[in-house]
Amino acid sequence: MHNIVLIKGDGIGPEITESVLKILEAAKIEINWIPASAGMEAYESSGNPLPDETVALIDKHKIALKGPLTTPVGSGFRSVNVALRQRFHLFCNMRPARTLPGVPSRFGNVDLITFRENTQGMYIGQERYVEGDQNRAESIAVITREASERIIRSAFEYARKYRRRKVTLVHKANILKYTTGLFLQVGQDIAKDYPDITFNDMIVDNTAMQMVMRPETFDIIVTTNLFGDILSDLASGLVGGLGVTGSANTGDKHAIFEAVHGSAPDIAGKGMANPTALLLSALMMLEHIGELDSAQQIRKALYRTLPDKEVITADLGGEGSTSKFTNAVVSQLKKITGSE
């Protein structure tokens, strides 16, 4: 029995979470879901977007599955996602982007993974107004050798374990010579320990251009926090958007798997939400806890469902609903497992 903390999230979060739970239940995986609260819902009920009880549960059980959370733009509390990553030292954000059957996209051969350093860079929260009239603001980015080594080595270890062919380190060392220059230097040193894996480095602006011109040339991208945030979303756009890409945040002791798209309050409760991103995140979670066969079976069921326009949601070009989509995946899963 796996004990896993469950944060349903805001907006469409509860709907897509229930969808994923139904699919995992059909796979007969023994999971004890431990409910917890975070985000706007928690803020409105308790005044705290990240309650101490939720932090304690994640700390105890080590693994969480999380739906999308609402973060106010420009005011209010800081991102709960960022707070969770820093609190539990989830230094590695891994975002696969793969071409999916039946999902409209401009490319048919994308299979890349972004490894994003998750705890440093521009997202450490050290920013301020320099003058009282708020006409000048500054933000501090911090890059350390230790954090750089952790994320870069994680990318190489993953490449070796899963027989990926190449690691591309993305930086802006021509301008940010000390911060991303340090990241590049560390990557060049670590690459020497992995002679079986092709290594190259690329300036971030060139990377963005190459990704939309020749995405098939990328395999694994490893980069700093801000660049990883941007490029991983770009990678999602290559395969159909944030609604069809999963995400894992892992550290030495804890792991949180989440849908990275927004909470979409405008469609909440209307049965229009696409559960694919959270489902793919849940499959990464299953692989993390050793449920490899179940993850493979569910992925196969999802892939068989996605081309069916009658059941998939409108954002994927379909005519279905959240419930129709979910039921179709469950039906395909039962065929695959012979449990009909």
From TrEMBL:
GO terms for molecular function: isocitrate dehydrogenase (NAD+) activity; magnesium ion binding; NAD binding. It holds the Pfam family Iso_dh. The keyword Protein biosynthesis does not apply. SUPFAM superfamilies: Isocitrate/Isopropylmalate dehydrogenase-like. Keywords: Oxidoreductase. InterPro entries: IsoCit/isopropylmalate_DH_CS (IPR019818), IsoPropMal-DH-like_dom (IPR024084). GO terms for biological process: isocitrate metabolic process; tricarboxylic acid cycle. Residues 3-329 form the Isopropylmalate dehydrogenase-like domain. Belongs to the isocitrate and isopropylmalate dehydrogenases family. PANTHER family: DECARBOXYLATING DEHYDROGENASES-ISOCITRATE, ISOPROPYLMALATE, TARTRATE, ISOCITRATE DEHYDROGENASE [NAD] SUBUNIT ALPHA, MITOCHONDRIAL. This is Isocitrate/isopropylmalate dehydrogenase family protein. It comes from Natronogracilivirga saccharolytica.
